[in-house]
Every structure is written in C-alpha cells, then in structure tokens.
Task: structure prediction
Amino acid sequence: MTPRQLRAFVGVARSLSFARASEQLHLSQPALSLTIRDLERALGGRLFSRTTRQVRLTPEGADLLPLAEQLLADWERVGEGVRRCFALEAGTLAIAAMPSFAANRLPALLRAYRARYPEVALAIRDVIHEQVLELVESGRVEVGYCFEPESSPGLIFEPLYVDRFIAIVPRDNALGRRRTVKSAELLADRFIALERPSSMGRLIESSLAKEGHPFEARLYCDQLTTVIQMVAGGLGVSVIPSLSRPQAEAAGVICLNLESPVICRAVGLVQRREQQWSAAAQPLVEMSRAQCESAKAQGSTSRIQKRLRPSSTVAGRFP
Result:
C-alpha cells in the first residue's frame, strides 16, 4: 500500500467516479483503474462495487476511507515538517559547550544564528568538557564545543583556535604586581587544582610537573568557576584557560601570563564520526569558523598597530 494508491482510492471514493477522479489526479482512466486494482490485490478484497452506471464503496472500502485520509494527512504533515527543517524554518538544534565557552563565545554565535534562522529552536547544555564528549558521542546533542579530546575514536574534533592558559592570583598576592609568572613561583604558593579525573586538571598538573618541581595542590575543586572563586577568596593561586579570563576578572582576581611552561590546548568543534552536519547545524559550524578567523585577523592587526605605535618620547618617530 503506497501513498499513490491511497490518493487514487480517496479520489475515487470521494467523487464516486473514475472519470472525475482521473481528471482531479491527472491520471488516465486505465492507469487509475490499474492503481485501484493493485491496491485491492494488496489488501485482499474489493473496495468498490462497480456497474456501468454507478460506483459505490464496499463496507471494507467505507471503513478504509477515513483511515486513508488520516494516513495521507500524516504523510503530508511529515513531509512538510522535514521540508521546513531543511529550509531552517523549524526543528531543534542541540548544542553542548563547556561553561567557559558557553558564557564567553557562544552568545555572539547564537545571536547571529538566531537573526538568520529565528524559527530553529536551540537547546543548550553547558557542561564540563568530559560531558560534552559524552553527550555528542551518545547522540543526545549534535554540536559540541570543547577542548581537544585526549582520545575519542567515535568523535571527530575540528580545532578552531588554541587557548593559552593563564595564572590567577588573589589581589593581595605579591605575584599580582607582575605581568608574568613561572610555574615554580606558583607551586611555591598554595595551589588550587581541578580534580584529577578532569582532563584539563591532568594537563595542568602534568605540564607544571614537567618543569621538575613537585606538584602538590592544597585544594581540589570540580568546577573552574569554583577554582576562580577560591582564588578570589584568597585561598591560593591557580592556572585556568584564558577562555575563562572574563569570569576571573569579574571575580576580582589578577590574571598573569604563565611561562615555564607555556600551556596550550586547542578549542574546537566535536561531532560524531561518520555523521554529517544537519541542515540546522551547518550554518552554526560555518559561523564558528568565521568568528575564529575574524578574531585571528583582529589579533594580527592589533599586534601590527602596537609595533607601529609612535614613541612616547619623540613625536612622529617609530621605535
């Protein structure tokens, strides 16, 4: 039983005329008769009683008519729904992002996306890095924003930019008068770390330990936001991604460049392996790439302008 056969059946059942139904359906009468005959053969009985003057529904045909109309209506509704999703006039896009990315990078992306596709609903999950990977791999969300995973065979990671980690210290800490700090200086203080199951925590811990200084944290936290608040409360010092710098500065801590070592990690998009982006996700992915390219270009321009800035001692001269 096919939609074509059901349309033919409903056309004849409503008009009770093969001639009128063939005109309405733009089919020849022989083709219409063959379609009805195939449907009757598939169902196992007659749907119409026909004479040379009259066409009537059999009891079975009368029972089938409202069901056939409902099936066709459902078929059209499903088709229209899918067409609207492809046209980005409907549907839902599920996204998972690390809280730091969700707070600092995602709003501008979603504002631009919503301006172009206001009918697409957005479902945002702001969860830690490891949960972003779990949600994408399980198929519960389509697009993930996170750090580059250590190992995820079921996922594809596309780097957008590289985050250079920074040190944070309380306002009354002596290190706060500096612009740059080394790991040995941080580890000599009370270091606040992320719990070891966190891949970011492992990265920070191993990078600092590689400098040959014993790593010993005085306080462990599950969330970066908690680490920042602990530092703001004067409980110690820490290292965080520069992506979290706005939250750190808002909390009142001092942000410093970290050297010896420089800790970097790629931030980007993650999707399930062997799965193409949906029609709703593709524009967001392209906007994400464009946003990062724009940020890189602005950064290059800023560095050039800084190098060309006139000397403060000799007007009009360049260093």
